[in-house]
Amino acid sequence: METIQIGMLGLGTVGSGVLQMIQHNEDKVVNVTGRQLNVKRVLVNHPERHQDVAENIELTTSVEDVINDDEIQIVLELIGGIHPAKEYIEAALRNHKNVVTANKDLLATYGPELVKLAHDHHCDLMYEASVAGGIPILRTITNSFAADKITEVKGIVNGTTNYILTQMSQQGWSYDQALKAAQQLGFAEADPTNDVTGKDAAYKMVILSQFAFGTQLAVDDFAVTGIDHLNGFDVQQAGKFGYVIKLVGIAQVIDDGVFVEVAPTLVPADHPLATINNEYNAVMVTGEAVGDTLFYGPGAGGLPTANSVLSDIISVTKNLVLKTNGNFFNNYQRQYIPAAPRDVVYPYFLSIMMPDVPGQMLKLTQIMTEIDASFSQITQTEADGLAHVVIITHEMTAQQLADFKARVAKDSSINLGAAYKVLK
Ligand SMILES: NC(=O)C1=CN([C@@H]2O[C@H](COP(=O)(O)OP(=O)(O)OC[C@H]3O[C@@H](n4cnc5c(N)ncnc54)[C@H](OP(=O)(O)O)[C@@H]3O)[C@@H](O)[C@H]2O)C=CC1
Ligand SMILES: N[C@@H](CC=O)C(=O)O
């Protein structure tokens, strides 16, 4: 039987999971593809840390050993980050290697040029694992929503932050304690900054939007807020109002435009997204014909992510058998037009500090009246001469919110701490 030789770049959390799956699931792979898979060579930074790797696998610190090996037909890029991963993938594609990667940073930033390079060289470039770890969401959107018009994709697409929020609210852990555990469990990026600032989720929303709407966004095209400034008091107050705060990514078609945002968001306690805990992710895809659908699973971790990588390897292998490599993973393309702020409508959670003196509340009410918005729920707590006012508004537009912020900014006695969307 013919053997497909694989070269790996990286043998960390995901790479180790991939190796384990290839070694343990040989029979099924042979049954499904008619080919054996063999990992021939692996690029790492620190070979001394990987001495337990199987004897027949060569470790190397030189990328040329992988990308210039004529026997290797599939290169797995699992080192992460933009450089040198981009140059390694480009070199592999130029050498006519099919590439599988889990790298959302790279695909969200340089997706179109890498996709073109792969196509020009008749190679596959697949990246199912780049969004929501173990949830097979990209292939599902491409294949199973091929004819339906998707109107919204929203969800929890970062495992680390969901793990942190869950541990803080359910176990009473500190932010630092929860982040450290997420790193030890292999959920966080090598540098967790992108996880906690929302950028990792934003990369995933760029890729999801491309698959769902055909738009080519950049992370700078939309607002991204992480959980690094989330305040324990706001989490508690949201809970008292019947909401859970989650880091939610939303991409929603509004008229001809698309609204995209990543931000801490109040989710009603009985909403499906409110029940997604720990490193689990969930993506809700709404289609005009099908209505709401929900895809749930582990969003981070070695073996779950490896399963998505393996699904790409199997697809590439089937293409090698049929000699059909070089088709686009997703070829839907449409121009991106940002939705107008006056068309983006949500209730908002506003957390405000101000002096506990007569007249302050009236000022706040006047500002709301000026922007033609209103409160649906409000609480006030006092401490040390300060009033902490927490409001849930009725539905208002993103434009009204911007006007509210601008007016409050002019009044030094009113300090707006947080303004989060409330999911409908
Ligand atoms: N962890 C997860 O749950 C998920 C991760 N991903 C993505 O998968 C990719 C891999 O992540 P993960 O496995 O967690 O990362 P790790 O940090 O655990 O592993 C990275 C691996 O790449 C090697 N490496 C890094 N830089 C270089 C370099 N310049 N040259 C050679 N080798 C290098 C490291 O070598 P050494 O071991 O010798 O130091 C290590 O083996 C990333 O793109 C990540 O975003 C996607 C979904 C989930
Ligand atoms: N750091 C990421 C890993 C998967 O993409 C996350 O926590 O979701």
Automatic annotation (TrEMBL):
Residue sites binding L-homoserine per the record: E189
GO terms, biological process: methionine biosynthetic process; threonine biosynthetic process
Transmembrane feature ranges: none
UniProt KW keywords: Amino-acid biosynthesis, Methionine biosynthesis, NADP, Oxidoreductase, Sodium, Threonine biosynthesis
Enzyme class: oxidoreductase
Highest taxon in the source lineage: Bacteria
EC number per UniProt: 1.1.1.3
Residues that coordinate or bind NADPH: K104
Homoserine dehydrogenase catalytic domain residues: 136-314
Substrates-to-products reaction catalysed: L-homoserine + NADP(+) = L-aspartate 4-semialdehyde + NADPH + H(+)
InterPro entries tied to this protein: ACT-like_dom_sf, Asp/hSer_DH_NAD-bd, HDH, HDH_cat, HDH_CS, NAD(P)-bd_dom_sf
Pathway in which the depicted protein is active: Amino-acid biosynthesis; L-threonine biosynthesis; L-threonine from L-aspartate: step 3/5; Amino-acid biosynthesis; L-methionine biosynthesis via de novo pathway; L-homoserine from L-aspartate: step 3/3
GO MF annotations, alphabetized: homoserine dehydrogenase activity; NADP binding
Database matches in Gene3D superfamilies: 3.30.70.260, Dihydrodipicolinate Reductase, domain 2, NAD(P)-binding Rossmann-like Domain
Residues at the catalytic site: K204 (proton donor)
Domain Aspartate/homoserine dehydrogenase NAD-binding residues, every copy: 10-128
Chain residues that bind NADP(+): L9, G10, L11, G12, T13, V14, G15, S16
Family: Belongs to the homoserine dehydrogenase family.
Matches recorded under PANTHER family: HOMOSERINE DEHYDROGENASE
Protein's name according to its UniProt entry: Homoserine dehydrogenase
